[in-house]
Specification:
423 residues; homodimer; Carbamate kinase; ACT_Aspartokinase (chains A, B); alpha/beta; 8-stranded mixed β-sheet; globular
Chain lengths: 423, 423
């Protein structure tokens, strides 16, 4: 029995009852002979409430102070969890990100972990303690200021600690049973995936699946830490994310892992761009200089009569205003005719390593959409993913049609509870 | 213009509006040319809410984790306050107790400050910042664990920082206008005291006055840091507590500083104690071994016929049960007949350095009580204080009678708002 890192999201520790339930589960792992390190998020809506308060006192909260504020949430949950464990007769010690040795850069509100030096955690474990660590937070290497890791940061804390402590698994506890072949709120027949490779999970995460964030999976792949995503409300096996299916489990890699969708993006079309070298570069340099992340990019074939073309790209809706303003400012320099902004779009993606060796997948995907009467506006592909942009109104029907077409539907009709994962 | 330390209690920063009001006051001090260090308590009832949560997950919260939990409250208020100040266009940085160099012993939940090394605060000030420090918390010297200073700890943080930074004054902002000659909720004609000596303030604090805690005043006296207790809701001068009245102010030391009362104590009478050497020692050794603090002690003259005497003492009601149990266990060894427990008592104290040179004070005190029909059960005196124990029902009438008898009543009838001071 080795060391396990368990991470519990905000919905799992939303109140005193939740904390006691989680404490019992942690003690069970300890009784089974494991050394246990627990990473915990802030209780329920604590973080949102703190953000509300910050906005009330200052319209633009400052980075350093904002991080100090937000990290109070995990201090509360980790201390309560340690108390609840002690109340069950086991020894527990809680540690802030700083005490746990989570060293980050100095980019407040979205710091990156640059080192983990878990000396105090190791000592606590060696002395027979369960170690409870505040997720989502660290301390900056140069200034020794408190930092936060941004959305999904607690998952990254858990994987980073698992890597630094050479854990045998990082268990991510949440309020769903695992990773599904599609969002069960949209597809009633979505199936829980027993095992999925890091690569497919990365594509799902970047295509709209919210169970695990891209950064956390990327970190786990780099250090080869198996992740087990599972429910804190049941004792069921969840979804294993790793390089290889575990030796004692016969899990065949599916051709298609799942269908993801994302309605958080908007589309900008730059109309009437001269079809000559340097034009696309000028557009995307403008976007990059404003630190806006873009996703899909498509350039139409130019009309021979005018020598003009259109360039479309997608980006988070939240950045739409900024992108439009930036491009308008450079209009004369870039030399386009106009901009079109559309936030009524959805992206639907089919993910699976099997499509590399199964040439019919792309055709089957488009046929399924066509049969469902869904129009395709943009297409983008990677080696193991195909994504299309459609009207937002069509998204549910499109996802269901593709899910059925690729034989992903479950045989049973059992209801699945699904929600967010905290952070 | 020198350095000032300002401390704001929980009631002053109870919500976003309060935080913005306090931020404005801090900025005003900065604009007046001061270097400003601010010590802040947790918002409103935050601490009590956290204690409630702790009791829900564990009946006996553990020291180290309990401290970690409680310190989250000040992290929230200090970060919000720093944001609010920045929003007014001034630079502010917040610091935890640990970051501010508040070094304590390892006694969780009631740690004592053993050193203050405010290097980061000094740097922040030198760079033109306003420094915001979390009250009530520190870090233990040996284990580097987070500690809390117990009730009133934020005031002690403020005075300790003022001493370490050689501040010209420590301003304690609260929701009352200062220290009064009696509790204004009981005595409508109580007057605000303009200046009071450390010694008289210490006696008032240990006699039930709640505006400043004994430990904080003791610390200020040791390092000769003037304290200015004042309201965060008005711009009025409050009460100065110092060795000497300030040079530019003509304040005559009153014979009597004020009347304090305390209804938080109970009385235990040990009945039928053999009147021989070692008996009292055996009783109070038992009490001390159980870490119970006692206040007044009175031994009656023994009855010649029986050779037995009674010993009475007062102690916090919260420790009553523990004291009774401890004494019962030692009954055979100590050899008393029975125990009587009475928690319907009140202590009334008259405080003033002037009583050293005014021999009529004691007599006047007893006459005032007698005229008001209040029976005296126990008497205890120090050089500058007389205290009596009466029935709890008589306390308000007794305080008013003494206040009037010593000429402390104010001429005006203006209403005074009075409340707690946070912690």
């Amino acid at each position: 029995m080795g060391l396990v890192v368990q991470k519990y999201g905000g919905s799992s520790v939303a109140d005193a009852e939740g904390i006691k339930r989680v404490a019992k589960r942690i003690v069970d792992a300890k009784k089974n002979g494991h050394q246990v390190v627990v990473v915990v998020s802030a209780m329920g809506d604590t973080t949102d409430e703190l953000i509300d308060l910050a906005e009330q006192v200052s319209p633009i909260p400052a980075g350093r102070e904002f991080d100090m504020l937000l990290t109070a949430g995990e201090r509360i949950s980790m201390a309560l969890l340690a108390m609840a464990i002690k109340n069950l007769g086991h020894e527990a010690q809680s540690f802030t990100g700083s005490q746990a040795g989570v060293i980050t850069d100095s980019v407040h509100n979205k710091a990156r972990i640059i080192d983990v030096t878990p000396g105090r955690i190791r000592t606590a474990l060696d002395e027979g303690n369960i170690a409870i660590v505040a997720g989502f937070q660290g301390v900056s290497q140069d200034k020794k200021d408190i930092t936060t890791l941004g959305r999904g940061g607690s998952d990254t804390t858990a994987v980073a600690l698992a890597a630094a402590l050479d854990a045998e698994v990082c268990e991510i506890y949440t309020d769903v049973d695992g990773v599904f072949t599609a969002d069960p709120r949209v597809v009633k027949k979505a199936r829980k995936i027993d095992w999925i490779s890091f690569e497919d999970m990365l594509e799902l995460a970047s295509s709209g699946s919210k169970v695990l964030l891209h950064r956390c999976v990327e970190y786990a792949r780099r250090y080869n830490i198996p992740i087990h995503v599972r429910s804190s409300f049941s004792g069921l096996q969840g979804t294993w994310v790793s390089n290889e299916p575990r030796g004692d489990r016969k899990v065949e890699q599916a051709i298609i892992s799942g269908v993801a969708h994302d309605t958080s993006e908007a589309k900008i079309t730059v109309v009437g761009v001269p079809d000559k070298p340097g034009e696309a570069a000028a557009i995307f340099r403008t976007i990059a200089d404003n630190e806006i992340n873009i996703d899909m990019v498509v350039q139409n074939v130019s009309a021979a009569s005018t020598g003009l073309t259109d360039i479309s790209f997608t980006l988070p809706k939240a950045e739409g205003r900024k992108a439009i303003d930036a491009l308008e400012k450079q209009k004369a320099l870039i030399g386009f005719e106009s901009l079109r902004y559309d936030d009524q779009i959805a992206k639907i993606s089919l993910v699976g390593a099997g499509m590399k060796t199964n040439p019919g997948v792309t055709a089957g995907f488009f046929e399924a959409l066509s049969d469902a009467g869904v129009n395709i506006e943009l297409i983008s592909t990677s080696e193991i993913r195909i994504s299309v942009v459609t009207r937002a109104d069509d998204v549910n029907e499109a996802v269901r049609a593709v899910h059925t077409a690729f034989g992903l539907d479950s045989d049973s009709d059992e209801a699945v509870v699904y929600g967010g994962t905290g952070r």
